[in-house]
Design brief:
alpha/beta, homodimer, four-stranded parallel sheet, 418 residues, Aldehyde Dehydrogenase, Chain A, domain 2, seven-stranded parallel sheet, globular, 45% helix, 21% strand
Amino acid sequence: MSLKQDILHTAVLAQKAARFLGALSSEKKNKAIKAMADSLLNNSQAIIKANKKDIKFANEQKRSSAFIDRLTLSSQRIKKMSNDLLAVIALEDPVGKVIKIWRRPNGLNMCKISVPLGVIGIIYESRPNVTSDCAALCLKAGNAVILRGGKESIHSNIAIYKAIFKALTKCGFPEGCISLICTTDRAAVSIMLSLSDHIDLIIPRGGESLIRSVVENSKIPVIKHYKGICHTYIDKYADLNMAEEIAFNAKVQRPSTCNAMECLLVHKSVAAEFLPRIVKRLKKAKVEIRGCQNTIKLVKGVKKATNKDYATEFLDLILAIKIVNSMAEALAHIVKYGSKHSDAIITDNFPNGMKFLKLVDSACVYLNASTRFTDGNEFGLGAEIGVSTDKLHARGPMGLEELTIYKYMVMGNGQIRK
Amino acid sequence: MSLKQDILHTAVLAQKAARFLGALSSEKKNKAIKAMADSLLNNSQAIIKANKKDIKFANEQKRSSAFIDRLTLSSQRIKKMSNDLLAVIALEDPVGKVIKIWRRPNGLNMCKISVPLGVIGIIYESRPNVTSDCAALCLKAGNAVILRGGKESIHSNIAIYKAIFKALTKCGFPEGCISLICTTDRAAVSIMLSLSDHIDLIIPRGGESLIRSVVENSKIPVIKHYKGICHTYIDKYADLNMAEEIAFNAKVQRPSTCNAMECLLVHKSVAAEFLPRIVKRLKKAKVEIRGCQNTIKLVKGVKKATNKDYATEFLDLILAIKIVNSMAEALAHIVKYGSKHSDAIITDNFPNGMKFLKLVDSACVYLNASTRFTDGNEFGLGAEIGVSTDKLHARGPMGLEELTIYKYMVMGNGQIRK
């Protein structure tokens, strides 16, 4: 079979399996996820053995220690992956929920009901736990999934997939429910992205270049997240103690995440009091500060921020700062440089707070809280399959509900259109 | 300005206007729509005059009388367009609705709230009333809209647009709220479809070839509707009188619509009784019948249906018929040939009815009713901007609600992530 035939075959099986999964009870889906969780533990040794090959390759390629750390699986980490699956069991089944029910004057009974999306393709990089996480989330939402991981973790992914697949087969699930593209040939991705008659949604997870290339080539709808350039705006009426705690948390607590703050906007009337305090604390935490001309005047040891800095997702201990003359200027800055991810205002002024929440067009807007809360678990949605900075279908953290859509069931007793 | 700069400029203004519209009260939006409706009436003569140019061109091109009829505007039809706008005023504002509200253990107040999508591009053919309809629906949902009509109705579209634009300007609305691409240069569409940083959604309305070309070229998410190959399945346990009325209605009442029945599936155990009756009645209504081998055996004057017939949206007085041995065979036929639009079962057997509603993966599934009800007005959603056979964001008739998305507003009192 050619690569193209091979992937088409996978997609056709997935589509068939999606019909099976869509009609399944919560109980049967949960049983299968439990079996998957157990199978991960039972196959720990095989997974660790496979993972060692990936680590060896990463060392040969002289990848960073952070990269190798993310890649590495221990029996403890496999235990965590297994527990993450058990957590999915506890989540409410998003399928078959009545969203709306009404009756038309002609007696038709209308029911808008949640259903699975169908077949979901996940294209991801490095972290092997994505393999089991995404498999369980898609399955719980009644979707078949086609996984395509990066070549860096191919051995780990195959071992994890084998463990999961064994469990599903034991439960009597058809082959296509969860598939892994086992080749590292990049052509496989292009083929996958062309199968719009068989795959309903693509979710890319990884760096911006991966995501851009998926969007560029896909004939299938994509839900994506390019980057998180998150702002915190310290209003004229901010409680500056609160502002300090929140800004520090948003930058420093985990700077490598997409919901970390990249730019601090400060109203001119509080800048002289606030900036020296926060900069001192940030510098103590080894944060490099790049500020506007006025920031530089107020605080020592600040580099000049360029326009490029304001447009950059540092994902690191670097912060851009800008002093603004008004909230309108802060809003305009966010329009120009923001990424529609997460932005916060710190203020005790209610109208200003409401105005910010209303006018900032981001998936998550915060009043007096850290942007670091943009996360499925922190929102109480349970595990998340990704974060969307798109405007269609889903915004912000995507949980199980975002892996479903709806259909209309219409029940009559002979109605015809006049 | 080059065409590219020109359209980019339009899109940038639209994006700016979207921010204005997104923050507007229902009252102000309704006032503007009222002004648009009035302006259509006040500019009736200019619109009819422009329309005459389009009709002249259509006659020169020897277009069909049905085509010219759809294109023609009379003062009565303009009155109807104006009334359709007034109906939009009466619809509930879909923006600012609280979808869900909850509180996290750390005290964060979470609010999922409906917001406009942003900028919507509509690419459409012939019918000039689409210009005013889409403009009003997008505006009511707080979106800016960029309209690109077909060259066949370009003069009518420009005249309608001018009338609307005048009204909006009087109301103090910025230029970009509603735009019309006035050139008929096809390159304009490709440019529009490339502006993914400025346009949030494309809705193509027209024939399948228009829609396929839009999907093929768009870098912007598209919600579309290729075709409606709608089935009615007459179950073994159908009330055959009801079945006859519904099948006749679904085929004959308005065969040119996407929700009309194209294929009738009949369980073998009722075929001998049902088919002669319905075929006789359909033939009287000048419906051409193309049936399977077994249908031909049962009824005289039936042509042989090919596989291509089963895959065709006739949009005409033609019907494909197939006798099936079981409901499973009917379901398999719909999987193979259906278009995920609208499909119906006629049965008095409750489990069979529920099974069909659950297993058929179409936007609208019917029990004992005509597929012709798939329509925004018939569903009670108010006017519709289109019908989606996609799986993402919206399925079936798309009303105002489907022109919105949500964002999360998170209100705290100093929460930071641990």
